[in-house]
Amino acid sequence: MESFAQAPIIEMSRLTKKYGEQTAVSQLDLTIRRGEVYGLLGPNGAGKTTTILMMLGLTEPSSGKVRVCGLDPARQPLEVKRRVGYMPDDVGFYEDRTALDNLLLTARLNGIPIQDARLQALELLERVGLQHTLTKKVGAFSRGMRQRLGIADVLIKKPEIIILDEPTLGIDPEGVRELLELIEQLSRNEGLTVLLSSHHLHQVQQICDRVGLFVQGKLIASGNIESLAKQLDDDGSVTVELSAAPWSKELDERLSGLDGLLTYNGPDVSDHAYSSVLPLDAVITGTRDLTSEAARTVLDCGASLFGIRRKQYGLDDIYHRYFEGGGQLERSNGIQ
Ligand SMILES: Nc1ncnc2c1ncn2[C@@H]1O[C@H](COP(=O)(O)OP(=O)(O)OP(=O)(O)O)[C@@H](O)[C@H]1O
């Protein structure tokens, strides 16, 4: 039986949104599980916001299906709104009121009794690190403080899912780190499902369990970083980078003759450089991992090994490969 933690909480199948002739979201198949932190990653105009609006019932799909907590947002928007907290990229507050006042207003709109609301709001302000700003008007808040208040504002109605559109936009690095930590804690400690839309690879990589890459309305890849890296590296080849000295003709020849080698990119050496004590670099790609054989070869040739590592693909490589290589769009079939 499927455990609670793995139960789907958001399901989209063949979800499509057209604006006139333009397809903003095309045939989207995606399932997000309870408690997951999922990152929607993609350039401007990729369809991230349109997807979010369909989940919230704020725009109707042209075709296909979306279910949020088992509900159809187009038919049951209020039910969905009760369960989902949405923080747009530019949160609006009453600027001449305090953070506490703003939270109490949101609580009132959500039908929370005033006594409970006050306690909850104070607790939330502490949780997002705004407990020392109780008398300050929101108009005087920094962007980072506003975003933290935005998170408290979506949490006050105790949602099952929070959707954050570019939550770290315009915040300094320290503020970003704190905000990401807060989001991660919310998911880990309280089982909250988090959907995060972003342009920032590194931030998404830090806290998301899985990432979906959107390009031109299509979800072209989805998975954890490891599985995306595998998709990137799907011909099974392994690349090893090494640094050694002194370099010799023998070392060159033996490395380029390794069994299972696909490509060898040795240093550009002159006779003089062969005797250099400065380490030189080589890149070896094989049909399998040649790290230990390459290391042994260096030592057998009487050279010192200054470094050797199997190349690991990060989200950066993946992002560039998918976003800059139109040819990769074909891989979109059958992802979950
Ligand atoms: N109300 C609308 N009417 C017509 N076209 C729209 C409308 N909303 C969005 N679009 C178009 O749909 C496409 C997807 O836009 P969307 O805002 O979903 O992208 P996005 O990935 O969220 O981009 P960004 O990162 O800039 O917010 C874009 O080409 C956009 O111009």
Automatic annotation (TrEMBL):
Keywords, alphabetical: ATP-binding, Nucleotide-binding, Transport
Domain ABC transporter: 10-241
Keyword Translocase: no
SUPFAM superfamilies registered for this protein in UniProt: P-loop containing nucleoside triphosphate hydrolases (SSF52540)
InterPro entries: AAA+_ATPase, ABC_transporter-like_ATP-bd, P-loop_NTPase
Pfam family membership, one: ABC_tran
Keyword Iron: no
PROSITE patterns: ABC_TRANSPORTER_2
Similarity remark: Belongs to the ABC transporter superfamily.
PANTHER family: ABC TRANSPORTER, ATP-BINDING PROTEIN (PTHR43335:SF4)
Protein name: ABC transporter domain-containing protein
